[in-house]
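job 3f2a | input accepted
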Amino acid sequence: MRAHLGDQLVIESPTTGAARRDGEIVGIHHEDGTPPYDVRWSDTDEVTLVFPGPDAHLQHPHDAPSGTTRTSRPGTGAAQAASTRVTPRRTADPGDIGRRVAAERRRQGIGLEEAARRARMSPEYLAYLEERPAAPSMATLIRLAGALGTTVTALYGGGMDLPPGQGHALLHPVLRDLTPQECRTLLSTHGVGRVAVSTSEGHPAVIPVNYAVVDDAIVFRTAPNSVTAAAAEREVAFEVDHVDDALSQGWSVLAVGPATVVTEPDEVRRLTRHAHTTPWAGGAREMWLSIRPTSLTGRRITAAEQ
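job 3f2a | predicted structure (306 res):
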């Protein structure tokens, strides 16, 4: 086994042959590229010294033609060392990954150098990823997703029609309660949350809405005849969360309080003027609802070592 910096070390299940763990080789101790290696694991982002066993192999993504990944396996003989197998690359076009990274960075108003600093990579390499077809390792994608506040799945463009949270649970998860200040920070200024209401027929309903936080109040627009309008003048629950499938981590915040209709014309104009986004659902949604939480709670799942 002879590796180069940036290669990916994949550990397979001895029974199924499926990948159990992978990481980017970030350090080589011998000039000829033989083990051991410093590996940054994609599931924990930790760097450890690794002596690969028989269940490990290398992936050289930049050596493969478009649409394939060429994988070299360890072996003792010259024939086995030279043998390769071709496996399908993940569905995303590497060029699409770079375009999604660039689009998300620009959408958030983050400069190239700042994004590179957050992702712990050189600005030149980030520019290369954004401008040319490339196959960044999983560890690189995790750092980019963290730097941009998104997920690896989003950068791949996959899973858009699948619910989040389909990955494996952490080996040693920690579930902790969030403080009210942490909850307010996670609510941030705007995003997509869910309003839980009782309809006029007495049935429960949970509706996603584009919301903003203004003066400690959660505000959103809806149509007067919509299901969401049933929240008016009632106590409701509002929930927002984030799930990172790549790291099997996430958080959720729950706000409970009365919802009122904003009727004062100057306040309606102020909310409309400072709205970050228009409702994704489209249509005429000029009715503003405001929730002032009387209860604000949240929880976060992380790895035990964090």
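job 3f2a | Residues 62-94 have pLDDT under 50 and may be disordered.
job 3f2a | closed
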